[in-house]
């Protein structure tokens, strides 16, 4: 009997383990084991590499990000200190030097 979790994207039951990740062969979705093993009600937020993020962490941007409504760009490697996790599509609230308060998606940052 398969005790692995179903794919959260397509609900396929044919998932498999690869190191610290689960992979769905049908839709190619990958997610960290930590997310699947989370037993409490809190939402687990992971960075681009699958590391679990917590409030107060320092992260670095992994891709140039254009700031909407402005000509500013957050460059690759920009370090953001003291992040705060929030609910929603953009799950990180932060303050970036020279730009100000912003919301980022966790898929565009890595834990430092």
UniProtKB/TrEMBL annotation:
Domain of life from the UniProt record: Bacteria
Coiled coil region boundaries: none
Gene3D superfamilies: 2.20.25.10, SH3 Domains (2.30.30.40)
Start and end residues of each Protein YjdM N-terminal domain: 3-32
Domain Protein YjdM C-terminal: 46-112
One family name in Pfam for this protein: YjdM
Annotated InterPro entries: YjdM, YjdM_C, YjdM_N
NCBIfam families found in the cross-reference section: phnA
Similarity-based family: Belongs to the YjdM family.
Name under which the protein is recorded: Protein YjdM
Species of provenance: Sulfuricella denitrificans (strain DSM 22764 / NBRC 105220 / skB26)
């Amino acid at each position: 009997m398969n005790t692995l979790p179903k794919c959260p994207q397509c609900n396929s039951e044919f998932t498999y383990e690869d190191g610290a990740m689960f992979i769905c062969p049908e839709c190619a979705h990958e997610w960290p084991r930590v997310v699947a093993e989370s037993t409490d009600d809190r939402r687990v937020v992971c960075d681009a590499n699958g590391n679990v993020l917590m409030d107060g962490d320092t992260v670095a941007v992994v891709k140039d990000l254009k700031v909407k409504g402005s000509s500013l760009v957050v460059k690759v490697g920009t370090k953001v200190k003291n992040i705060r996790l929030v609910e929603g599509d953009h799950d990180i609230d932060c303050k970036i030097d020279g730009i100000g308060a912003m919301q980022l998606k966790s898929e565009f940052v890595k834990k430092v």
